[in-house]
């Protein structure tokens, strides 16, 4: 499975940690930057990530900024993107099962590395349940 990942400066270290974790676990990873922790603007990187998810270059995206909030707001401006900011593993499972989320956003200043890995695991290993949830997702798209 191919996963896109991006961050801003505040999320850079966690991006590198999660990228390595994904590769070590057999995922193919496309890194949309940044390449260092110099100050950048998260909407620029959210845009690269959303384009790759919409074009199906990658199946899912992971975005990381300080709180995860800015990245999440920016990602959800793109039609077809259902981005979820998660700080716990249960929410990560449920947003795949109920919302068919296609981008997971994380706050590097909010959660630690091990919790972030657990959240990523649950997100990537949970399937959309369809049914009544599909009707609701369709209404979001409309
Ligand atoms: C950067 O200082 C910070 O504002 C950003 O990473 C993010 O938390 C915004 O939502």
UniProtKB/TrEMBL annotation:
GO molecular function: ribose-5-phosphate isomerase activity
InterPro entries (UniProt xref): RpiB, RpiB_LacA_LacB, RpiB_LacA_LacB_sf
Keyword Isomerase assigned: yes
Assigned keywords, A-Z: Isomerase
Catalytic residues identified in the record: 65, 98
GO biological process, any: pentose-phosphate shunt, non-oxidative branch
Enzyme class, UniProt record, top EC level: isomerase
Any Pfam family the entry gives: LacAB_rpiB
Binding site for D-ribulose 5-phosphate: 8-9, 66-70, 99, 109, 132, 136
Enzyme Commission code: 5.3.1.6
Gene3D superfamilies: Sugar-phosphate isomerase, RpiB/LacA/LacB
Source taxon at top rank: Bacteria
Similarity field: Belongs to the LacAB/RpiB family.
Protein name in UniProt: Ribose 5-phosphate isomerase B
UniProt lineage: Bacteria, Bacillati, Bacillota, Tissierellia, Tissierellales
Gene: rpiB
């Amino acid at each position: 499975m191919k996963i896109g990942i991006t961050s801003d400066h505040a999320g850079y270290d966690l991006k590198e940690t999660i990228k390595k974790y994904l590769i070590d676990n057999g995922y193919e990873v496309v890194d949309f930057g940044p390449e260092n922790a110099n100050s950048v603007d998260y909407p620029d990187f959210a845009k690269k990530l959303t384009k790759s998810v919409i074009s199906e270059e990658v199946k899912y995206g992971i975005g990381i900024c300080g709180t995860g909030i800015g990245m999440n707001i920016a990602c959800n401006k793109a039609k077809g993107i259902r981005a979820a900011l998660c700080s716990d593993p249960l929410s990560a499972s449920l947003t795949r099962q109920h919302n068919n989320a296609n981008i997971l956003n994380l706050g590097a200043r909010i959660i630690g590395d091990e919790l972030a890995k657990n959240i990523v695991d649950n997100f990537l290993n949970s399937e959309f349940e369809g049914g009544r949830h599909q009707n609701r997702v369709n209404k979001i798209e409309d």
